[in-house]
Amino acid sequence: MVAAGAALADEVGLDRLTMALLAERVGVRTPSLYKHVGGQDDLNRRIAVLALSEAADAVGVAVQGRAGRDALGAAARAFRAFVVEHPGRYAATIGVEPSGPDDPLATEGERLPTAFTAVLRGYAIAESDVDHALRMLRSLCHGFATLQSADGFQWSADVDESFEWLIGFADRGLRAG
What we know:
Number of strands: 0
Number of helices: 9
Shape: globular
Strand content: under 5%
Order of helices and strands: HHHHHHHHH
Structural class: mainly alpha
Distance between the termini: 45 Å
Radius of gyration: 18 Å
Oligomer: single chain
Largest sheet: none
């Protein structure tokens, strides 16, 4: 049920995903969904957990065996691809708070920063600056990918070329550390 909801969110947007629309998509009556999820908020949280897991897997696989700019580029491209391909499920991850340390949101939510922290090991980043560097990378990648998925780049420059420029810019900044 969650996978169907996530796919539908990607198709129509998280803000337009409803229990009724999901029920129609999977061919059941809306009350039947409540056997699987506790309601719209529960569905959205479960989609967020799925998205965090999928994004962390994509970035983790992309960075294996890589270091420095190569790892940075692989991680950034994998993250961007996930957001562009799955805008609805990615939207579910924004602003959602874990209810406690055992909440799957907390455990899955740590995996993506861990993958990006592995990227930072290829740079001389002081331990006290790791959180700042992670926020910078998240801001760059999130901003670019969400703008791209919303068709926010309307001018003539090639989007892929701009993203590679962004990776180079981040790499130079991290090396200057």
